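Q: Could you fold this chain for me?
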Amino acid sequence: MSDAIHDDELFLSEEEVVDYIAEFKKDSYHTYGYEQEEFGICPYITFYIYHQDNEVEEIANKIINIYEDFENKIIDKPFKRRYRDTGVWKNANKWKPSHKELINEMHQSFKRYPVYFIAATTGNSPNQSARWVFCAQFSDNNNSRYTTLKLSFGEKWYREHKSKWYQFVQHCLIKLNPIQAYSGYEIGNSTNFNIVSPEFETAERIFSDYFYGLDIDHPNMNHSHDGLDGFIYTPSLAAGIRTPTWCFLLSPYWIDKLGLSEEKIRLKLDDPRIEISKLLDATDPEKFSLWIQLGELSLYPVEEGIPDLLVRANDLIKPIRCNDLKLTTLDAWDDDPNPRFDIESSPQWIARFDEDSSWPEGKRVNKVSNLSLEEEKLKVKGGEPCPQTGYWQTPARPDLRQYFEEGDILPTFSELDWGEVYWYWDGEK
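A: Sure. Below is the predicted structure, expressed as structure tokens.
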């Protein structure tokens, strides 16, 4: 593909979507799209750091140190482009500023703008999804006190260096002390800064129908917290956390909002596939964060059923979830034939792991019952009588397949602190 998107054309046909998925399964580094603007499905991690104005330099020094470690100790392919504050992407070999130069450039930038960027990519163009990307956005704005750090990382490299990556991530979490953090798969957009291209946002919407594990992460659209008047902008991550797809952080701020003890959080996520790391808060020894990894990094194709670990995590964070989060950086134009997230589909995607969700419409399969929603007939809430003799299963206890007689009261498992428990018919034998 070589031409820019037009008002009256589809960016991706159904055949192109199917072909991309087939090629991606063969090679996870596969990209597709317009020349120099190819998209790909990439693993990423983003740290959202809430701070006061007088803390931005301290945070910048920490992030630049991470930048140096990322380039010198992690990536297996050299950066090709670096972002200069003049708005130009420079040849990475010809321009490699020192730590001090970056700090000085930040201060000069703040005299003109309330934001400063540091970025580098292994892509030939900053408009491509790349194997490795570093992108930091520093804020010096009274009403927007989020600094973010976003990294794209190589999927194949990660599979071979898991321990090294986990150590690096924990180092970042401890150093940065973010208020939120997420990791998973996305349509790689780490170098897009404030505006994600219409083509990439179209790809996000299309492939969200195919993969439960595809995340939507636009850090530059979510920089509001509480303003000086205490106002919280509800379509932002200040209003709540995002539905997790792989790894996510519960910081002291959100643990307090959730109102659950560490023990109760661990009980809700009690599964041998889930790893929870407790990180002590450097500013207050009484506080801590929990970095939660939901099994292995996976895209969870929708045809394989609703992933039970993501359902568990969703149930945990639902009381503090941001249901109004804006998932696009640009609004669709009139007569645009391409699918994009909007005011209807955005909250549906956020709530895709809820009990009453039908996302994605027509493709949703229940992993427990192995039936599509259209086929699924027997679903009974715990505490109600069993309508049919036979075997039943529940997501609250995925390891349990239990026999009940008609009229038996189905268990609620109140001791699990799961919330509402639903039982699904699993046959007579």
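A (continued): The radius of gyration is 23 Å.
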